[in-house]
Write a structure and sequence with these properties.
Strand order of the largest sheet: 5-6-1-2-3-4-7
Structural class: alpha+beta
Number of helices: 7
CATH topology of the largest domain: SH3 type barrels
Helix content: 25-40%
Largest sheet: 7 strands, mixed
Mean pLDDT: 79
Oligomer: single chain
CATH architecture of the largest domain: Roll
Distance between the termini: 34 Å
Low-confidence stretches: none
Length: about 180
């Protein structure tokens, strides 16, 4: 279903039990792929004295047309370990370290959306800095797990691996 960003930003968000959680404060767009990567959930004030926000995948929301508010289809307790940030001081969202941390968190929040295949794709996209669809040893240095397993990933010793090679081997190293 297609929706305008202006229809989503500012929309109230409730938990599955109807509890008011906050609102969609912003959307983070992947300009290279032309899609929304995350929604930014700004928590409501009564339990959010630090004015914090968290990035969550759109897949966890139900934006059904017949409902006034969006419903977050994950248990609120999954947000307990969320990577929150001050909504007035955004993190460096293109930083490889930040992206790795957000991706690890999102796997816990929405495992069906960010399962093993998505995890490998996200890691590859994050590390392929020159966007040539190959990872070099230099690019692997931006992720400690990938760097530690570089010899296993680059089984041919070519000094670079393709997206397909990475996807086929990534799940064995990222446990």
């Amino acid at each position: 279903m297609l929706r305008r960003a202006s229809e989503l930003i500012g929309k109230d968000v409730n938990g599955r039990d109807g509890e008011d959680l906050g609102k969609v404060g912003d959307l983070v767009v992947n300009m290279g792929k032309g899609g929304v990567h995350y929604a930014v959930l700004e928590f409501d004030q009564p339990w959010n004295v630090n004015k914090s926000a968290v990035m969550v995948p759109l897949a966890v929301f139900d934006f059904s047309a017949d409902r006034g508010d969006a419903v977050m289809n994950v248990d609120k307790s999954r947000l307990d370990n969320a990577l929150t940030f001050d909504k007035n001081r955004w993190p460096l969202i293109n930083s490889p370290l930040f992206l790795a941390n957000v991706d690890r968190y999102l796997i816990l929040v929405a495992p069906n959306k960010y399962g093993s295949i998505r995890r490998a794709e996200a890691a590859f996209d994050r590390l392929d800095l020159n966007r040539d669809n190959k990872l070099s040893a230099a690019e692997a240095r931006h992720d400690a797990t990938v760097l530690d397993a570089w010899k296993q990933l680059d089984a041919k010793g070519a000094g670079e691996i393709t997206r397909a090679e990475f996807s086929a081997r990534y799940n064995t190293i990222a446990k």
